[in-house]
Amino acid sequence: MTGRVILFGATGYTGHLTAEALARRGVPGTVLAGRNGDRLRRLAEALEDAHSWDCEIAEADVTDPATVAELVDSSDDILISTVGPFTRFGKPAIEAATGSGAVYIDSTGEPPFIRRVFDHYGPRARRTGASLLTAFGYDYVPGNLAGLLAIRAATADGFVPSRIDIGYFVRTTEHTERTVSGGTVASSLAILTDPGFAWRDGALIAERPGAHVRSFTIDGKQLDALSLGGTEHYALPRIDPRITDVRVFLGWAGNRTRVVSTLGRGLEPLTRLPILPGVATSLANRVAPGSTGGPSPADRARTRSLARAEAFLGDRRVASVTVVGPSPYDLTADLLAWAADEARRGALGTGSSRRAGALGPADAFGPDAFIEGCRSLGLVASTSEGRPD
Length: 389
Hints:
Layout: E1 5-8, H1 13-25, E2 30-34, H2 37-51, E3 56-59, H3 65-69, E4 78-81, H4 86-89, H5 91-100, E5 103-106, H6 111-128, E6 131-133, H7 141-156, E7 163-172, H8 182-190, E8 196-200, E9 203-207, E10 213-218, E11 221-227, H9 232-239, E12 245-250, H10 257-267, H11 276-287, H12 297-301, E13 303-313, E14 316-325, H13 328-344, E15 357-358, H14 361-365, H15 367-376, E16 380-384, E17 387-388
Parallel strand pairs: 1-2, 1-4, 2-3, 4-5, 5-6, 6-15, 7-12
Antiparallel strand pairs: 7-13, 8-9, 10-11, 11-12, 13-14, 14-16, 16-17
């Protein structure tokens, strides 16, 4: 491919980290895009000085979708979007990429947006030739990796797993002051009144976020996590169609997990009222207006990503894989930059043979290349706690 890599949302917290990751890789033909030209210029100058890296800038604003559409002018372009919450601000970027038949990669962790990418934009992308890689960060690449490896481990031992459970956690030291960015808070609030989904009995079903709580035992500690929708529900059954149940859980609430689940159950009837989504959006705008900074470099250095996948045959656990990597924000930035660079090099295929539609990570790059790419970014897998595979 000869197109450009366009990073939309470059001056936000995740966008800035992604721009740095692209600069470290020396990705040529990169365009830093956002709504504030002065901030874009300062960022570009800083990256050029630090990495001897040339890039361009372009102004675009989600409140003016035409400016976002103008970013993508070729099917060879690669558009990275870090502009969230995606349920509020994500449409212009994916519309631009899908309509142009380009490559689209985003950092969302929001189940409603993920489902829309696969169910609504995926079929359209197959017609236009666009390649859509949604949620290509800490949410939900490590779980896809761990799930793929758990399927392989179970199969190698002679089992055909029917269910995969995945849990997401973070490890921090006692000196960590901040682990979550303003954008993450805003995205979390954005999904409170939206329906979630799950993969049950070989079909996608609607299910509210936090409907279930599951405990995972990791390094001798019991960790609770809330159920929610992820790309694994779409991607893992593609790897092995015999997987009839996929369950994804997020453990960021810690010892408040069961309380959050109970509150969600009590609020669920209210989500059916037409007025509530508007009230929730207004509240989200006030409480978490978007990118308001995030963890410092020191805090990120003290934080590790962790994903656990457990494969089951009936009720019997037949394999488990734990994946550990850098902090969620560093990992997300590195994954976005890696995926864009690989796409630029033709790893998704080229021309009419490029893989199109809404893709999981293994769909997009192939299972072995996906595993090796994750390993190169520091995602280390083990089949039991503390023993690298």
